[in-house]
Amino acid sequence: QVQLVESGGGLVQPGGSLRLSCTTSLTFFSIYPMAWYRQAPGKQRDLVAKVLKGEDRIANYVDSVKDRFTISKDNSKKTLYLQMNSLKPEDSGVYYCQAEVNGRTYWGQGTQVTVSS
Q: Which residues in 58-68 are b (16+ Cβ under 10 Å) and which e?
């Protein structure tokens, strides 16, 4: 059973920063594609950033977060990160960590991010 545990969410003012973490129980953590998704109240869960094939130098971002968010992996700690800078109110939502392992998709429980003055 793959476990994903997010942390690092909270309340931050517009323009502030947060770093989300997702720790995993994955064996061979470094080889799997992983991603961060966001779900705002009343909306669907949307992709924010994705690391392809375990290589964090190859990453995709949704246009609205490019140049503000950075996804990265620490393979020694089996942890996925999302550094979020210049936060905006529209970045608010529950952020979920996702892993694709051998054709199956796993999700964490989510961490709340609220950007408000």
A: ebebeeebeee
In whole angstroms, how large is the CA radius of gyration of the chain? Answer: 13
- CB count within 10 Å of CB 108 equals 22
Q: How far is CA 26 from the centre of its chain?
A: 16
Side-by-side strand order, sheet with 69-74: 4-7, 18-24, 79-84, 69-74
- When pLDDT is averaged across residues 44-66 and rounded to a whole number, the result is 85
- Please choose, from the candidates 61, 64, 43, the residue with its C-alpha nearest in 3D space to the C-alpha of residue 52: 61
pLDDT tens digits, residue range 76-89?
899 999 999 999 99
The structure tokens 């003012």 sit at 13
The conformational region for residue 48 under phi > 0 = left, psi -120 to 50 = alpha, else beta, is alpha
Q: What is the 3-state secondary structure (H, E, C) of 72-95?
A: EEECCCCEEEEEECCCCHHHCEEE
